[in-house]
Design brief:
The chain is built from 12 helices and 12 strands. The chain has 341 residues and is of the alpha/beta class. Strands 1, 2, 3, 4, 5, 6, 7, 8, 9 and 10 form a 10-stranded parallel sheet that branches. It is globular, with a radius of gyration of 19 Å. The structure holds S-adenosylmethionine, 6-(5-methyl-2-OXO-imidazolidin-4-yl)-hexanoic acid (DTB) and iron/sulfur cluster (SF4).
């Protein structure tokens, strides 16, 4: 069994990212199999509960009020609407419901609504996750007490490159929020974005920060930058997809027991690239045709891909989804959905 380490050095991580690809993928897949069923993928559904008009200046983000992206803004949505969406997500097979708000941090007057949302979604038997910006220790405790299972707060990139991307909050602010979340007893979801013009050493630096936290984040979203017109990153050069796969593999090796989520950017990825990411150890996705404001693959195409690859949703998803989605069985060159899951 691979040791769970928290003492990664930058040179070591860079060397890992630079390994011959076959060696890197073999190591990642071997580690993956020690901790997970290699054919299971956890499924989360995302809902924007407050859209746009964010005061922060994250250069990648279509929701910052500073950039003109043509996004329609929306105030904090009614609890009822959230519950309707959560019900649909559950019926479609999601085991976790993730609610995201375009805030620097939640205001005190929003807290009662947020706590009600958590209680009621949790009451429906789903895992709950929120991403609301920075949290104070008190806010984190209140959310945990209401039943929030996960809190997402990304480090986004290395400490060295961070200043190129965001000026309105510091890396330490982010680490502090992660600390508040952990101390409140919630599970941590934290990762970053690749393809923002960072160098390999920055991808190594991000992974090192995550893996050297006292406890690894239980969930590590790796986003590929979605280049939204109107943001300062609209014309950013593409990251070589193989570099993306390498980062997924390194995340798997460095945080062996964590779920690594193939997050934003899947809409622009080929099936082959996604398949390589799953082989490299990604074992979680956002399912549903919309992320927060940008597009995600249609449900049907994800199901077809799951069928082709013989992947199935992780336990916890309703039985009927397991009927639809799919252990692929190749017989006379045809694909069959295996209802037994
Ligand atoms: N406002 C809160 C915050 O920033 O902490 C929560 C929502 S924010 C949209 C959640 C995460 O989405 C960001 O940390 C970033 O990693 C990711 N994200 C935002 N825009 C993106 C884009 N264009 N491409 C890829 N990931 C993006
Ligand atoms: C994360 O790391 N990725 C998700 C989730 N956490 C909240 C958000 C992706 C957002 C992509 C851009 C958008 O749709 O607005
Ligand atoms: Fe606001 Fe979050 Fe977007 Fe940054 S990433 S601009 S904090 S919504």
């Amino acid at each position: 069994m691979a040791a769970i380490r928290h003492d990664w050095q930058l040179e070591e991580v860079q060397a890992l990212l630079n390994k011959p690809l076959n060696d890197l993928l073999f190591e990642a897949q071997s580690v993956h199999r020690q901790h997970f069923d290699p054919n299971q993928v956890q499924i989360s559904r995302l809902l924007s509960i407050k859209t746009g008009a964010c005061p922060e200046d994250c250069k990648y983000c279509p929701q910052s009020a500073r950039y003109h992206t043509g996004l329609e803004t929306e105030q904090l949505v009614e609890v009822e609407k959230v519950l309707t969406e959560a019900k649909a997500a559950k019926a479609a097979g999601a085991s976790r419901f993730c609610m995201g708000a375009a805030w620097r941090n939640p205001r005190e007057r929003d807290m009662p609504y947020l706590l009600k949302m958590v209680r009621e979604v949790k009451g429906m038997g789903m895992e709950t996750c929120m991403t609301l910006g920075m949290l104070s220790a008190e806010q984190a405790e209140a959310l945990a007490e209401a039943g929030l299972d996960y809190y997402n707060h990304n480090l986004d990139t290395s400490p060295e490159f961070y200043g190129e991307i965001i000026s309105t909050r510091s890396y330490d602010d982010r680490l502090n929020t992660l600390d508040n979340v952990r101390k409140a007893g919630m599970k941590v979801c934290s990762g970053g974005i690749l393809g923002m013009g960072e160098e390999l050493k920055d991808r190594a630096g991000l992974l090192m920060q995550l893996a050297n936290l006292e406890t690894h984040p239980e969930s590590v979203p790796i986003n590929m930058l979605v280049k939204v017109p109107g943001t300062p990153m609209a014309d950013q050069a593409d990251l070589d997809p193989i570099e993306f796969v390498r980062a997924i593999a390194a995340a798997r090796i460095m945080m062996p027991a964590s779920h690594v989520r193939l997050s934003a950017g899947r809409e622009n990825m080929t099936e082959e690239l996604q398949a390589m990411c799953f082989f490299a150890g990604a074992n979680s996705i956002f399912y549903g045709c919309k992320l927060l404001t940008t597009a995600n693959p249609e449900e049907n195409s994800d199901m077809a891909l799951f069928a082709k690859l013989g992947l199935r949703p992780e336990a916890g998803a309703p039985v009927h989804l397991e009927k639809m989605a799919p252990v692929a069985k190749r017989d006379k060159d045809e694909l069959f959905y295996n209802a037994a899951g």
